[in-house]
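Key result, reporting period 2: structure in, sequence out.
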């Protein structure tokens, strides 16, 4: 397994639409395993392939909370086949939008259909944080970030701060070598 670099906004690759995988072959399984390791290392609770620069419809998740424990979930070509009328607001963050959080409203419960790590079709009923997470990750596959769900004013402010932080990081790295920063709030890093 290998750790993959996580892209951060604004990066044009995060705005692209990803393509379905034809079959879950050894290459896709390798990608899934590398993504899971990368997500655990960040640490976060969800990661989509375009966040590591691979434009394939592949996501990984692992939610470990008192009320929801999923274990590692690998999904290729995930699609929402049912969504509740009831909504849920959750303060979302993202490994590609480090250190910024915002409330996003989405359906509170969804059913997702996908191919698992063995290439078998599965359906999973999701609610609460898992429902939020699955929808957030599928958004990534369509080039949508959680900041696209908030006001343009707030989005642009976050993007400006991210650019500034990236420049500072590059300057620090030039002086002291690469510094790996850890996610402060993994509950929201999805
Ligand atoms: Ni994300």
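The corresponding designed sequence is given below.
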């Amino acid at each position: 397994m290998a750790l993959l670099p996580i892209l951060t906004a604004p990066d044009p690759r995060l705005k692209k639409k990803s393509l379905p995988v034809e079959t879950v072959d050894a290459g896709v399984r390798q990608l899934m395993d590398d993504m899971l390791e990368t997500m655990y290392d960040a640490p976060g609770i969800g990661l989509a392939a375009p966040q590591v620069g691979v434009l394939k419809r592949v996501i990984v998740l692992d939610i470990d909370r008192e009320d929801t424990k999923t274990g590692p979930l690998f999904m290729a070509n995930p699609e929402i086949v049912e969504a509740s009328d009831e909504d849920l607001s959750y303060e979302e963050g993202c490994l590609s939008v480090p250190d910024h959080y915002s409330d996003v409203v989405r359906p509170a419960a969804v059913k997702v259909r996908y191919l698992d790590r063995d290439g078998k079709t599965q359906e999973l009923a999701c609610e609460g944080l898992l429902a939020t997470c699955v929808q957030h990750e599928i958004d990534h596959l369509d080039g949508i970030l959680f900041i696209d769900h908030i006001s343009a004013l707030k989005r642009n402010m976050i993007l400006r701060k991210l650019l500034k932080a990236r420049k500072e990081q590059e300057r620090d790295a030039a002086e002291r070598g690469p510094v790996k920063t850890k996610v402060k709030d993994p509950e929201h890093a999805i």
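The helical segments are 26-41, 128-141, 152-176. The first strand starts at residue 46 and ends at 48. This case is discussed further under Risks and Mitigation.
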